Amino acid sequence: TPCYNNGTCIDQINSFLCLCSSGYTDLRCQTMISQCNSLPCLNGGICRDSYDDFLCICPPFFTGKQCEQTINSCLSFPCLHGSCTPTLSSYTCQCNSGYTGDNCETVINQCASSPCGSNGNCTSLSTRFSCCCAPGYTGLECNQLIDICLTNPCSIEGVERCISTGISSFNCLCKPGYSGRHCEININECLSQPVISILVFFS
């Protein structure tokens, strides 16, 4: 038969006529009618011809015969540590405190800015940091020098005044009658040998 694609041939005088099957055209039904000419695919879908029909290859987040339906991109729970908001072609994540990244997948290093300085070791927690201070320092960021005299290292009874001389160092200024590193020694004046003046009279 001179007709292609299952076309029906009708004999005529010194000629023939092809009645084409659905989806085909031209003299011998050799040309497929493109179902994509009408641009049936929506939202950026790519159209492919098939027999008497069309097929839409949809972009991400769209589905349906003509890519007309929006897929809720949050149904797969892409935000690991945060809340998801679907958009027209994607989604956005609102991260919980302490997390960052497109999908809230990255833990924020709370110690990145070195909040404890050189006087402490920093530990990053989920939403804050913690400083372990070196001896002699205190405070949230280990930036306060401890006054060792506040711990009363000198003997309360024998000290006149405590003088802080640096980190964990001090001097005790003793009251009269006391001595020792901490003014803890009560001097026994009876053990002292005062100078005695002896007057000798001659007659």
Automatic annotation (TrEMBL):
Gene3D superfamilies: Laminin
Keywords, comma-separated and alphabetical: Developmental protein, Disulfide bond, EGF-like domain, Glycoprotein, Membrane, Notch signaling pathway, Repeat, Signal, Transmembrane, Transmembrane helix
UniProt-annotated location(s): Membrane
InterPro entries: EGF (IPR000742), EGF-like_Ca-bd_dom (IPR001881), EGF-like_CS (IPR013032), EGF-type_Asp/Asn_hydroxyl_site (IPR000152), Growth_fac_rcpt_cys_sf (IPR009030)
Superkingdom, natural source: Eukaryota
GO cellular component terms given for this protein: membrane
Principal subcellular localisation of the protein: membrane
Alphabetized SMART domains for the sequence: EGF, EGF_CA
Listed name of the protein: EGF-like domain-containing protein
Organism: Adineta steineri
